[in-house]
Design goal:
Layout lengths: L12 E4 L6 H18 L4 E6 L5 H14 L3 E5 L5 H10 L4 E5 L8 E7 L8 H13 L15 E4 L2 H11 L2 H5 L4 E5 L8 H6 L5 E5 L20 H9 L4 E5 L6 E5 L4 E2 L1 H15 L6 E4 L5 H9 L3 E4 L3 H11 L10 H12 L3 E8 L5 H14 L4 E2 L2 E7 L4 E5 L4 E6 L5 E8 L2 H15 L5 E3 L1
Parallel strand pairs: 2-3, 2-4, 3-6, 7-8, 7-9, 12-13
Antiparallel strand pairs: 1-5, 4-5, 9-10, 10-11, 14-19, 14-20, 15-16, 16-17, 17-18, 18-19
Helix pairs in contact: 1-2, 1-4, 9-10
Length: 450
């Protein structure tokens, strides 16, 4: 029987546990990764981390065993940790690369394999192509004898060095002593403990929610958006808290809830961070955003005289462009609601929503192709009564409209679903644009709001 074909998505390879995400396939991917790392260094060092999903630590050990059998020294994290901690550890330890066993914000049935290069960044497309060729040329990779790799694998606590790096970037002592009341919605993910360690312990109090290990994620997707965080929003509306930070399954995706219980989506968080770096800290440089990211970034770039580059979705596309352009940003004294109000005064009102079209996994490729071809054949000149000014089609179809709003349809690279996104001045306008595009491709009845 031929080995199963492995294909990387927007950020690594993901699959259904015990279906295509198996120990056998993980060993194949790890073997290809080991060969790639050995081509990059005569004395490679690998980092391996994992999240809180079912058997993630066991899959991580399987990866470490393959690396060790190839003579690669490997540091395996001693607890579930955020993916970005692995990225920093690559830099800190001058490692050749890192593997994170995680499916990020995917449903609980999934697990995944992310690879980070010697720069700590996501793997660029040309390296992904090389890895896929090697993986798919391999048949069965047997589990190695543990004795073969003896002395090559070590347990490693990444937190002290990671905390030290964050303290060089942010005044953690000032936050600790600010007397803030911060909630961290961990979503049963690997970020538990990190925020509390860094900013708690002084006058600031950090309250963690859902910080236990639960591979079922409480029956929700570990993605920090409504309705997955509705109970946390309700808690914040009661009051007596200053801020809630919500992190996803591997804590590399964030949502914010302000002191009034208002959810601040990832687009707004990105724009707020950009404004903070430009205005409060006086930093300058290009900014990279993906096609599903906010137009607020373009307006801020114009205001501050900095270029904004738009790339397809995925860290694999963001990271190379950041390095190419020496970008500042890719991906303080007031209540968060006031800071957000100030942002909207500068860039105008903002509303955003995403609809997910869930498809059958076994027919996904044909269904996806049919939907994309339908849109190609019926490409609109106007959407919801607003003229289309231009179209981008290298990662789905993004329609830029005459009033500055946009709507995007793209196929997920990690799940069997089509996503439709829109940003406009108000929620009604957003929904009108989403519905119009759904009607064109005939999927309105399958759409669910996110």
């Amino acid at each position: 029987m031929a080995a199963q074909q492995i294909k990387f998505g927007t950020d690594g390879w993901r699959g259904i546990i015990a279906d295509d995400f198996t120990y056998g396939n993980v060993r194949r991917v790890a073997q290809a990764t080991a060969q790639y790392m050995k081509s990059r260094s005569n004395d490679p060092l690998a980092i391996v981390c994992y999240d809180c999903r079912f058997a993630s630590e066991d899959f991580a050990q399987a990866v470490a065993d393959i690396f060790a059998s190839n003579g690669i020294k490997t540091l395996v994290f001693d607890r579930p940790s955020p993916t970005q901690v692995a990225s920093w550890t690559v830099i800190d330890r001058k490692a050749t690369g890192a593997v994170a066993i995680t499916a990020s914000h995917n449903p609980y049935q999934f697990n995944g394999y992310k690879y980070k290069t010697e720069t700590g960044s996501a793997v660029p497309s040309e390296v992904i192509a090389e890895l896929e060729r090697t993986i798919n040329s391999l048949d069965d990779v047997p589990a190695p004898d543990h004795k073969v790799g003896h002395g090559f694998v070590s347990s490693y606590d990444p937190r002290p060095h990671y905390y030290a790096q964050i303290s060089r970037m942010v005044d953690l002592d000032a936050i600790k002593n600010a007397g803030l009341r911060v909630v961290h919605e961990c979503m049963y993910g690997s970020g538990y403990g990190y925020i509390a360690d860094m900013i708690g312990g002084g006058r600031t109090v950090v309250t963690e929610l859902h910080n236990q290990r639960n591979p079922l994620f409480g029956g929700i997707n570990p993605e920090p958006i409504p309705p997955n965080i509705d109970s946390t929003i309700a808690m914040m509306k009661v009051g007596n808290q200053d801020l809630c930070i919500c992190t996803d399954g591997d804590a590399d995706r964030v949502g914010i809830i302000d002191e009034s219980g208002r959810f601040i989506n990832q687009l707004q968080v990105f724009a707020l961070l950009m404004l903070y770096l430009f205005e409060a800290r006086g930093m300058r440089g290009p900014v990279i955003k993906t096609v599903n990211m906010t137009a607020m970034v373009d307006k801020l770039g114009a205001e501050f005289g900095e270029r904004v580059f738009e790339v397809p979705v995925g860290f694999k596309n963001v990271a190379p462009k950041m390095m190419e352009t020496n970008a500042l940003l890719g991906g303080a004294g007031k209540p968060i609601s006031q800071i957000l109000a100030g942002l909207e005064q500068r860039v105008g009102p903002h509303a955003y929503a995403r609809h997910d079209i869930h498809l059958q996994r076994d027919t996904y490729e044909s269904d996806r192709k049919r939907i994309i071809e339908t849109l190609q054949q019926n490409e609109p000149n106007e959407i919801a009564g607003v003229a289309v000014q231009r179209v981008r089609s290298d990662d789905g179809f993004k329609f830029y409209l005459a009033d500055g709003s946009w709507v995007l349809l793209r196929a997920s690279g990690t799940e069997a679903l089509i996503r439709i996104y829109s940003e406009a001045a108000d929620g009604e306008a957003v929904e009108a644009r989403l519905r119009a595009l759904e009607d064109i491709v005939g999927v309105r009845q399958h759409a669910t709001a996110s």
